[in-house]
């Protein structure tokens, strides 16, 4: 459903909402004092009996970037749609900026921006008009200078007088992002914002996200490009089967669940591990050409020097040493695999 079209009905036309001044955008800790989105025991069951969400609870801190990961059908889009007021929950509550998203619909929509997956735009409207109209729908007074800035940031300024039907798919995606930013939201949801778009748009998108984060905007994104979440997110949430499996600080998550490996490239292949090395948690990989040591933390890392000495003492020569740490994708696959 096109949200802008639904909002044109007089019942939903919001009043102008005055926003409180934001704190210093150069100090992230200034935004971490409280939750700007609070989800409690959220459930959603559709008419066909499908349970899309099963008791999800989540607090999103003001000023952070949260990456929400999960396979198709996990419940990511349903969760976002409920928070944004597009879908009604079956149970539980959602507060946005202290307002209930169902009872205080106009207030919450005034502070939330959404970039949906679907390209829902009026094909016969110009870029300038559709972005400007979206600002008005969300209760903001006209500000041509701000609209111009948004369009320039997204490389849309030279297309401002084009009708949307004249644009490529990538350019239409940029327009959706511009619409979501048009009313200067305090919270921005990005539902697979770079899926199927060109590399240039992805680059522009993350530049805009970085700028918004510096300005104190809270950003929640879903993505299939896990390397993007690993690069930009502060915290990571993993959802599967309608349940939130975890929400963790990215660095803490990598330390807690990420595995590290020391890899020795051998000069000569090894068929069996010598008895002298049996107590060192080593295993042979890659047809005997590698010795691999798995470790989890700094305490086990301290054993590396004695391990290398033991390998040399056992008469095993190696020509190279490298290390590898599990990526966020490895952790995600492991979590989903354990659940399956």
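^ Assign residues to that structure.
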């Amino acid at each position: 459903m096109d949200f802008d079209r639904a909002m044109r009905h007089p019942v939903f036309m919001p009043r102008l909402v005055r926003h409180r001044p934001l704190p210093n955008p150069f100090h992230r800790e200034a935004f971490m004092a409280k939750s700007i989105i609070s989800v409690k025991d959220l459930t959603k069951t559709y008419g066909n009996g499908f349970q899309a969400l099963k008791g999800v609870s989540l607090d999103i801190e003001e000023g952070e970037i949260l990456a929400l990961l999960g396979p198709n059908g996990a419940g990511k889009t349903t969760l976002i749609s409920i928070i944004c007021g597009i879908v009604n929950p079956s149970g539980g509550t959602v507060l946005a900026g202290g307002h209930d998203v169902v009872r205080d619909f106009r207030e919450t929509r005034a502070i939330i921006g959404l970039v949906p997956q679907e390209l829902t735009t009026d094909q016969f409207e110009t870029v300038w008009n559709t972005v400007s109209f979206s600002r008005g729908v969300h209760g903001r007074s006209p500000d041509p200078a701000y609209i111009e800035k948004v369009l320039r940031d997204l490389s849309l300024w030279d297309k401002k007088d084009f009708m949307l039907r004249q644009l490529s798919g990538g350019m239409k995606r940029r327009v959706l992002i511009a619409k979501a930013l048009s009313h200067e939201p305090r919270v921005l949801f990005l539902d697979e914002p770079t899926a199927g778009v060109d590399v240039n748009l992805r680059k522009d998108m993350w530049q805009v996200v970085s700028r918004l984060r510096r300005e104190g905007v809270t950003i929640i994104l879903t993505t299939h490009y896990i390397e993007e979440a690993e690069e930009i997110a502060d915290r990571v949430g993993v959802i599967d089967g309608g349940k939130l499996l975890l929400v963790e600080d990215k660095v803490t998550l990598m330390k807690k669940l990420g595995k590290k490996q020391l890899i020795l490239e051998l000069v000569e292949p090894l068929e069996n591990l010598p008895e002298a090395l049996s107590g060192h948690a080593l295993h042979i990989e890659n047809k005997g050409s590698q010795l691999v040591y798995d470790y989890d933390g700094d305490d086990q890392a301290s054993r590396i020097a004695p391990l290398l000495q033991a390998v040399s003492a056992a008469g095993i020569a190696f020509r190279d040493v490298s290390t590898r740490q599990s990526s966020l994708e490895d952790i995600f696959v492991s979590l989903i695999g354990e659940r399956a």
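The radius of gyration is 25 Å.
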